[in-house]
Structures are given as structure tokens and as C-alpha cells.
UniProtKB/TrEMBL annotation:
CDD domains: Alkanesulfonate_monoxygenase (cd01094). Residues 35-360 form the Luciferase-like domain. One of its GO terms (molecular function) is oxidoreductase activity. Its EC number is 1.-.-.-. This is LLM class flavin-dependent oxidoreductase. InterPro entries: Luciferase-like_dom, Luciferase-like_sf, SsuD_RutA_monooxygenase. Residues 1-12 have a biased composition (Polar residues). It comes from Cohnella hashimotonis.
């Protein structure tokens, strides 16, 4: 039978991949502290600084990084999405002028990897997106990746981005209400119980069907938010929620406030009988000694691209995001929700503190990706394993 045409109808829901013990998501969730790599798919990566480095936005560079991360045992590789005018954020670096699409990039990376989860960000409210599109595209990506594909579904906080698509940014909470209906429809289509006829507040479908079925119930779903409406959405529909620091980029300021911040979304999910994982994005600067690490950290700050930082800050203030509210403009030179700086022992200890505060995973950014990722793998991951924060992962053959 088909679903009835009632806006408040109970749509079919698929099995969640985390409930299936052989799913790639369950494997990632078995780690005490998940490791993710935030890919630099955009000019300048995550750091608005002119200090020389090799970080590059090209696909080949990001493919090498993803393969490197997979061999180090990382669980997730993930990309950001933004829509920017000519020149990006400008400045000396032309920050984020070039920007590979994270969804397409993640699909392409599936054929170059074997174990790591791949996620791409999608602004589902921009342009003529329909749940049928996303349900079909994600089911296809799920099969290409053998269940390793996920979508970070975002509503878009920026004021100017929707205008590029000829639409006006909607009210903050109403955007999440629309996203919730969008996701419920996708879940019903992934369930594949029957043709779906549905008349809702935002979307209508008549005798709609999508095949094939995803391999593990549905694709992995994530969201990034810091607002009550965003946390409510995440508690109902997401496997992973990306949070920002509620107290700026300094770890010592964030740690006292993180437990309550994290508990808000975890408790909301638990009340619905669900369990979600919370991930945060630190920029990690690790050197053999604490002194070397802080000298490098200061050098990045001393070369801040002030023009790009000014443009970025102005854009964020014009939006209605409830994340990044306490972050300093100068901290953008380094980037990341948090700055984790020090020797390998210092960094391992700080990551342990994040885990103790309720963080289930870290989505890492580096300043100079390839050498810094390699040194992190060589120097920090063994310490995380010794501390019980990571289970050893065998490199891919």
C-alpha cells in the first residue's frame, strides 16, 4: 500500500546503519575517539595565513591525503561546502577562491579508498533540490562506496549564498523544519516499502520510488549546528553532529563548557532512544617539543591574511549561525573550532581531555597537511592507542 496524503503521517523509516554490526559506520563508532580529516578542498584550506606551505585544493592532493589518512587508520574524510563570489574571501591568498564540490569529491574518492568513511556537505535548501534527487544520489553513492558514504546536511546560514540560487534565506528554525521533512521523505524512499505518495508542508510526491536500497539501511547522515533547532534536528535524524566550541578557539576556555554543550544534543537523542556521536574540529599543531610547536603556531598568526579574515568575519556576522560566536578574528589565521598545540605528549593529553568532556571524535585540520598528517600519525596516534583512546587499525594492503 502507499502512504496516505497526510502532512503529519508517519513515514517509513529504514534501519539505522549504526545498529547493523557489520556496517562501516559501526566499525567507525567502535573507536573510543574517532579520527576524521577535514579535507582542504578549497584555496587556503582552513587557515587564513600567508606563511608558506604545501597545502593545495586540487583533487589529486586531496586524494593523496585521504589515502594517507586511511593508511593511518582514520575513520572519516570530510569536506566543507560554501558558495562564494569571485575571489572568495580575497586578501593576499584569495582565500577559498577555488572550491571543489565536497559531494562529488567524496564520490570520486570512494574508488580510491577501501575502508574510510567519506562525507560530503550538501545545502539541501538551495535551488530546486527535491528529496527524490538526494535519495537517489545518496543510494548510488552508497553502492559505489560499499556503504561508506555519508551526507552532511546543512541549511545554510549565510545571507548572500541563497541569493546566488534566486532564493531568499528563510527563518532559522523554519529552515530546520523544512530539512526535517526533507530527511523524513528520504528515509521513507530508502526504506522502499512501496511507492510513496505524500503531501507535506514543503514537498509533494506521487507514487515515488527510489532503488536500489542502500546497503546498510540508509546512508550515513550528519549535520553541523550549535542552535536548539539544529540540535533537535540532529537528535532525530543524524548519526554524527559536528559542534563548534562554545567558548572560542582556546582549549582551556572550551573544556569547562563542552560537557554541558555536548550533553544537550546527546540527551535529546537519548530521549528518543537514539545514540549520536559528537565531533569537533581542532586544528592540530604538533612538533617534537612544546617550544617548537608554539613557535610555529605564532609564525602562522604573525602571517595572518588580514584582508581575508576581515571578509570572512563580516560574512559570518551577516549570517544567523549560532556557532563560532566566541572565536577571535585573529584565530582564523590558524583556523579550526579549537587550537590544539604542543608536543606529541601534549596533544595526546589534550585530545584525551576532549574525549573526557564528551567528544566522540575529532575532525582534524592541519596548516601544512601532508607533512603534518604524517607526523601526527607517527607521533600522536601511538600515544592515543596507549591511552586507550584508539584501537590499532591495520593499514590497507
Amino acid at each position: 500500500m502507499s502512504a496516505s496524503n497526510q502532512q503529519d503521517q508517519q513515514l517509513w523509516t529504514p534501519e539505522e546503519p549504526q545498529n547493523l554490526p557489520d556496517s562501516p559506520l559501526s566499525r567507525a563508532f567502535s573507536q573510543p575517539l574517532m579520527l576524521g580529516l577535514f579535507l582542504p578542498l578549497q584555496t587556503g584550506g582552513w587557515s587564513q595565513s600567508t606563511l608558506p606551505r604545501g597545502t593545495d585544493w586540487s583533487f589529486e592532493y586531496n586524494k593523496r591525503l585521504t589515502q594517507q589518512a586511511e593508511n593511518l587508520g582514520f575513520d572519516i574524510a570530510f569536506g566543507l561546502s560554501q558558495w562564494l563570489p569571485k575571489g572568495g574571501f580575497g586578501g593576499e591568498t584569495g582565500y577559498r577562491e577555488n572550491f571543489l564540490d565536497p559531494f562529488v569529491s567524496a564520490v570520486a574518492l570512494a574508488s580510491a579508498t577501501r575502508r574510510i568513511l567519506l562525507m560530503g556537505t550538501i545545502h539541501i535548501l538551495y535551488g530546486p533540490w527535491h528529496p527524490m534527487h538526494l535519495a537517489k544520489f545518496l543510494a548510488t553513492a552508497d553502492h559505489i562506496s560499499q556503504g561508506r558514504f555519508g551526507a552532511n546536511i546543512v541549511t545554510g546560514y549565510a545571507e548572500n549564498e541563497p541569493k546566488m540560487f534566486g532564493v531568499t534565506r528563510g527563518d532559522h528554525d523554519r529552515r530546520y523544519a523544512q530539512s526535517a521533512e526533507f530527511t523524513r521523505i528520504c528515509n521513507a524512499l530508502w526504506s522502499g516499502v512501496d511507492n510513496l505518495t505524500y503531501k507535506g508542508e514543503f514537498y509533494n510526491l506521487e507514487e515515488a520510488y527510489v532503488s536500489p536500497r542502500p546497503l546498510y539501511g540508509r546512508p550515513v547522515l550528519a549535520t553541523a549546528s550549535g542552535s536548539p533547532a539544529g540540535f533537535d534536528y540532529a537528535s532525530k535524524y543524524s548519526d554524527v553532529v559536528f559542534v563548534s566550541s562554545p567558548a572560542g578557539e582556546k582549549l582551556e576556555d572550551a573544556l569547562p563548557k563542552l560537557p554541558a554543550h555536548v550533553a544537550t544534543v546527546k540527551n535529546a537523542a537519548a530521549a528518543l532512544g537514539r545514540k549520536i556521536r559528537v565531533i569537533i574540529n581542532p586544528t592540530i599543531i604538533v612538533r617534537p617539543t612544546r617550544e617548537e610547536a608554539f613557535a610555529y603556531y605564532q609564525a602562522i598568526m604573525d602571517h595572518a591574511d588580514l584582508g581575508a579574515i576581515g571578509s570572512f568575519s563580516a560574512r559570518h556576522k551577516a549570517g544567523d549561525s549560532q556557532s563560532w560566536l566566541e572565536h577571535s578574528a585573529r584565530g582564523r589565521a590558524v583556523g579550526g573550532h579549537l587550537h590544539v598545540v604542543g608536543s606529541p605528549e601534549d596533544v595526546a593529553e589534550q585530545l584525551g581531555q576532549l574525549h573526557a568532556a564528551g567528544i566522540d571524535g575529532i575532525q582534524i585540520t592541519f596548516y601544512d597537511y601532508e607533512p603534518e598528517l604524517a607526523y601526527f600519525g607517527e607521533s600522536v596516534i601511538p600515544l592515543l592507542e596507549q591511552a586507550g583512546l584508539r584501537h590499532a587499525v591495520q593499514p590497507e594492503a
